Amino acid sequence: xxxxxxxxxxxxxxxxxxxxxxxxxxxxxxxxxxxxxxxxxxxxxxxxxxxxxxxxxxxxxxxxxxxxxxxxxxxxxxxxxxxxxxxxxxxxxxxxxxxxxxxxxxxxxxxxxxxxxxxxxxxxxxxxxxxxxxxxxxxxxxxxxxxxxxxxxxxxxxxxxxxxxxxxxxxxxxxxxxxxxxxxxxxxxxxxxxxxxxxxxxxxxxxxxxxxxxxxxxxxxxxxxxxxxxxxxxxxxxxxxxxxxxxxxxxxxxxxxxxxxxxxxxxxxxxxxxxxxxxxxxxxxxxxxxxxxxxxxxxxxxxxxxxx
Length: 308
Known about the structure:
The structure is a single chain. This protein has a single domain (6-236), classed as TIM Barrel (Alpha-Beta Barrel), CATH 3.20.20.70. Helices cover 45% and strands 10% of the residues. It contains eleven helices and eight strands. Strands 1-8-7-6-5-4-3-2 form an eight-stranded parallel β-sheet. Strand 2 (41-43), helix 2 and strand 3 (75-78) form a beta-alpha-beta unit. Helix 3 packs across helix 4 (114-125) and helix 9 crosses helix 10. It is globular, with a radius of gyration of 18 Å. The mean pLDDT is 96.
């Protein structure tokens, strides 16, 4: 049994100005997560621009993460692939680096058929020793399984020990999954950038898997929740939510911009597709970060308190 819980941020992939992977910057972000008191890490995921990484880049960073952590906190390796043999190979790559579980997205090409989904995950499980985390993301990224369909897949595949639920309404879906197969699982995590984390925790979720730029805030939020300090948890959620709403639009570009403002990244280059910030967006992000200065425990941005 592999019990995992708490805040497991997804580590982004920093790129140098020439577009190459910046491993040193990657490890600095890992150190920031450790300093923030997170419970674990995830790499690679959608917030890592995983779809843009070559197999060599991906493998090198997974190995570097394992070496750098030295078992101080657990990490989950992202191993999604439409080919179950390739997904298993990625899981094994993570296992050799010290990963505790493999996060695999339900392939959208299989549709919402629990039998076909289960067969895919059984084929993966036959080829890896790692427990599997079923990542249920909405279409077009994932299959967008209903919570009943997620439960049906879990019931068919004993190797699935965790679920990361990211379809809306996230909280209700977490409740349904836990009521149906909670006793078979070692944890149901929320995703969706931690935008619904309070509702998910209140329903018994094991934790959350957001992007990394607010790792210290999320760690403090979950610590407050665990000790029963609901007022502090809700305040941190309420005051950080505007940045998460902004991040929902600009995704990894917003993540990297915030990390740069916190002195944790130099280059904000992103390979991923998606909207780019214009001059007004930059000013708005500065205002949002400035509004949240009191929430940051470390790496406080040097911004005016009331940017215009």
